[in-house]
Amino acid sequence: MLQPRIPVNPLPTGTVIPLTQPTTPTTAVEPVTCHHDHTPAPAPVAVPRTTVQLTPGSTLALAAGSGAVVLVVGAVLVSMLLVVTITGVSVALIAVVLRLLVRDMQKGR
């Protein structure tokens, strides 16, 4: 249908090799016959699946575990926010101190 037109590839040696290959086969290929049995494979046996049954104890353990995960993730996020805040305040304080020092140097004190 749509065939891209690829330019030839000039090599450093000066010989030009086209990138397209011939579309007609150069040798005749004989068909291969198969030598095995074509009977269909047996259908897999369906294994009965059991449903997960939660007892009151396992439900309580699941709730406690998920609560612990929420607390840990919350503590990590709050500590990351605290680190960002402290870094921002310290950078702002350094900028103010440097500004005062530069102003004092310009006045000649």
Describe what is shown at a glance.
By secondary structure, the chain is mostly helical. Helices cover 48% and strands 4% of the residues. The chain contains one helix and two strands.
Q: What does this protein structure show overall?
A:
This protein is mainly α and 109 residues long. It is built from one helix and two strands; from the N terminus they run ββα. It has one helix spanning 56-107; strands at 9-10, 16-17. The protein has a two-stranded antiparallel ribbon. The longest helix is centred in the C-terminal third of the chain and has 52 residues, at 56-107. It is flat and about 95 Å long. The mean pLDDT is 82.
Task: Summarize the topology.
Elements lengths: L8 E2 L5 E2 L38 H52 L2
Antiparallel strand pairs: 1-2
Name a few traits of the molecule.
109 residues; mainly alpha; 2 strands; flat
Integer average pLDDT = 82
Oligomeric assembly: single chain
Question: Cα distance, first to last residue?
Answer: 82 Å
Strand content: under 5%
Query: What topology, given as strand order, has the largest sheet?
Result: 1-2
Largest sheet: 2 strands, antiparallel
DSSP E strands, number: 2
Overall, the morphology is flat
Name the helix and strand elements from N-terminus to C-terminus, one letter apiece.
EEH
Instruction: Tell me the Rg in angstroms.
Output: 38 Å
Class by SSE composition: mainly alpha
Query: What is the tally of helical segments?
Result: 1
| Low-pLDDT runs | none
Give the helix proportion (percent range). Answer: 40-55%
